[in-house]
Amino acid sequence: MSIIGVMGGICSGKMLFCQLMKDMYDYKIVQFDQEIDLNKTAIQIYNNWNTPTIITAITTQEQIRVLKKRNYFHLIFLDASTYTRYRRYCKKHGEINFDDFVKLDDKHKYDLNFLELAKNCKVYLKNNSNTIEEFSNSLKQQMTKIIRPFRPDWDVYFMKIAYTVKQRSNCMKKSVGAVLVNNNKRILSTSYNGTPKVMKNCNEGGCDVCKESKTLDLILYKCMCIHAEEGCILELGITQTRNTTLYTTLFPCVWCCKALLQAEVSRIVYCEQGNWDLSLQIIQNLIKYDQIDIEQYIY
Ligand SMILES: [Zn+2]
Ligand SMILES: [Zn+2]
User: Fold this and answer.
1) Regarding predicted confidence, which is higher, 66 or 276?
2) How far is the CA of 205 from the centre of ligand 1 (A)?
3) Alpha carbon distance 58, 245 (integer Å)
């Protein structure tokens, strides 16, 4: 279930991109030109919902509006440097001078209101490759961005919740969000870092350490902020934390590692690495951990 629309400047490689998606992933190519009946074509695409389809070139807001009626449609912006596109143009259509190409390119961009259209793109791809093989290899590496699964997997789902939780952090030094989940994929608790509830919030001056600009690791033991991972455990107690998965936006510090071990949390999923060599050592061999790159998943 996938409909991909492609937009991009002159000679950015839109047709080549479509062809590679066809060869590598069996996408059906639909070319939009001026004669096409947009609504009729869209209905044909919707009816063949099981056929992955790639459409080139998207050039109007109306096309995007119609295609967006299916939530498995997404738009990709394909780009290449002006000079690269100029060279490709000359190869394809014969030599012209660079100034003329820039004029042509500007007209194309501004006539189509490219910047406005590009706001609809979820994925930006660069194609400065000199050979088809080079481009195809670079696409393979970016496939998790290009072909979006219909819905996020559990790890991405809970991690995105952790990022939402993180927004409630009141610590002025660093925001972290965490979510504790049981084996049945049910959320047991959520927490973000900040001062204990009886105190003033960190961002209102509740933690003297966070107000200063010393490095975080040196003064952690004096810091009044409760960490997000710690907060998740405190909400529950060990009878419920045993064999759970903790999703945290930042890899746990040493303090939280100790708490997680004691709480018998069995898996940690994190995004940002942090600066915690020692906590990594503590966790290794004791708790299974996985890193996910949330940036790759765009929904
Ligand atoms: Zn703080
Ligand atoms: Zn911590």
Assistant:
1) 66
2) 9
3) 42
CA of 169 to the centre of ligand 1 (A): 9
Residue for token digits 């759970």? 244
- The residue written with tokens 């600066």 in the block is 275
- Percent of the residues in the chain that have a pLDDT greater than 70, as a whole number: 96
Are 206 and 199 spatial neighbours (Cβ–Cβ below 8 Å)?
A: yes
How far apart CA 53 and CA 69 sit, in angstroms, is 15
Q: Which ligand has its closest atom nearest to the C-alpha of 223? A: 1
User: What's the pLDDT at 283?
Assistant: 83
Q: 236: Cβ–Cβ under 8 A, 6 or more apart, which residues? A: 180, 188, 189
Report which DSSP code applies to 184. Answer: T
Q: Which tokens go with 287?
A: 């708790």
Residues with CB under 5 A from ligand 1 (ion): 171, 173, 202, 207, 210, 225
pLDDT of 133: 92
User: 277 CA to middle of ligand 1, Å?
Assistant: 21
Q: Cβ distance 297 to 156 under 8 Å?
A: yes
Q: How many CB atoms lie within 10 A of CB 292?
A: 16
Q: How far is it, in rounded angstroms, from Cα 195 to Cα 98?
A: 60
pLDDT digits 0-9 by tens, 21-61? 999 999 999 999 878 888 889 999 899 889 999 999 999 99
Q: How far is the CA of 152 from the centre of ligand 2 (A)?
A: 27
CB-based burial, 11-21: b 16+ in 10 Å, e otherwise = bbbbebbbbbb
Burial of residue 107 (number of CB atoms within 10 Å: 0-12, 13-18, 19+): exposed
CA–centroid distance, residue 186 to ligand 2 (Å): 23
Taking only the tens place, the pLDDT of each residue in 219-263 is 666 788 889 999 999 989 888 999 999 999 999 988 899 899 999
